[in-house]
Amino acid sequence: MTLLAVKVFDESNKEVVTTISIGADNCNISEILPTIRQLAMDQNKKNSPQAWVCGEYSFSFDYISSKSLLLVAIASLNTSFVKLKKFLELLKETIEENSINESGILSSKFFQDTCDLLVKSVDSIPNLRISLLGLAKSGKTTFIQQHITEQQLAGFNSYEPTELVNIVNFEGSSDLPQIRFYDLGMAFQQHWWKFSSESDGYIFFIDISDSNSINASKELLEEIRNFWDLPFVIAANKIDNSTIKNPRRYLSRKLFVPIRLIHEVETSTGVGLKALLQDLVINEIQTKKQYSAVLQRTRTKNESKRRV
Q1: Considering the domain 128-293 in this protein, what is its CATH number?
Q2: What is the tens place of the pLDDT at every residue in 233-265?
């Protein structure tokens, strides 16, 4: 996160305290401060920091101390809105709990130190990395195009099947973290194994409306599971065109996969995609990480007992 400066203004728009500016000197915030105040007032019902782009800068802002002080964070345009708003949310909580003295003036040193620590804390929040696997035309790229707010990181073709790899970032939401998606093309299949070490989990897409595709997908999934020992879910796509009465039960038996891992989706409309992502992130990836952490602590304790 490229944070340039953080400022606090009182009701008369006087600057109460600021961090050391790292390149925001050309930002005439006094000119746009009335607009920021109006936006903050209009949006305050949402009870969370707001974000705005103006010129060369990104801003996040919110009122603190019963709306008597306005908190404004200034960042470069390449800064994630999610991280910027998270930073300001944490800073607001810290200020309201600890740093306002009897006269209502913030301690400059405390303010600077707190901002520095929170920037490091927000930047250290890891992104999840999820690969999208499956046969051509199974729905991987449609999923990215239609339903992921992306920041393009690699060549992205809007209409043709992916030849190599599309890498896009999902900014996150209230119930999902930031995610980096690897949309892997079939022409790149011989290199898929490289992404197994880069991924926290994967989504395997199947065209449930094509029986030939299902058989080919079964073989491909068996091959993947031989070298991708990672959490995954199955996206049974194109359910609106399928003649199979119970796709989840059918695929569970066909693929030898627990039925809980199979989701009926329609990538062109978004049906089932949010539940699929939540299941993969919360019930599979995060649960496995927690289990691994507990297992590691148990092993460490056992090793310590043996040494004694």
Answers
A1: 3.40.50.300
A2: 999 999 988 889 899 999 999 999 999 999 999
Assign domain 3-123 to its CATH superfamily.
Longin domain (3.30.450.50)
Residues 6 or more apart whose Cβ sits within 8 Å of residue 233: 201, 203, 204, 261, 262, 263, 276, 279, 280, 284
Residue 201 is encoded by which pair of tokens? Answer: 């989990």
Q: What's the pLDDT tens digit per position in 149-185?
A: 443 333 334 434 555 678 887 776 656 777 889 899 8
pTM: 0.59
**Spans of all domains in the chain:** 3-123, 128-293
Dihedral angle computed from the Cα positions of residues 182, 201, 285 and 235, in that order, rounded to the nearest 10 degrees? 90
d(CA 36, CA 29): 9
Structure tokens at 205: 């897409």
Sole residue written with tokens 């952490």? 293
